[in-house]
Amino acid sequence: MITPGMSITVSRLPTYCFFIASLIPSALLAHHSFYAEFDANYPVKVTGTITRVEWENPHVWYYLDVKGADGKVTSWGFSANAPGQMMRNGITKEMFKPGIMLTVEGFRAKDGSNNANSQKVTLPDQKTVITGTQGESTSQR
Description:
By secondary structure, this protein is of the alpha+beta class. The protein has helices at 13-22, 26-29, 34-37, 83-88, and strands at residues 38-54, 61-67, 73-79, 101-109, 115-122, 128-130. Strands 1-2-3-5-4 form a five-stranded mixed beta barrel. A hairpin with a 5-residue loop joins β5 (115-122) and β6. 20% of the residues are buried.
């Protein structure tokens, strides 16, 4: 029962929740699952020369020119972990500079394009680094 002089306080929780939700970046909301974009049943392994690197969130992307047995050069794009994850694993930008030759193992895009999820990279000094955490590791196949 409400008596004169009493006030009713409306909870501000819904307002705060709405405000916090509006601060979430749209890129975070658009983040995708490995299985939505890549095919864990279609492993790829290519060797090529880095032509371009996009070292930025949400994923590092790097591109290789891969020479086929027929001599034809094909461009491949690889999605790796976020820059912070890569750096915590000891992987630096300097390891992925244009002109460097790499061997990359990963999983091809479901759309059949020359894009793939990068899982394991062999550097010119034969050191192997893990660049992905999604799907089954190609080294376990």
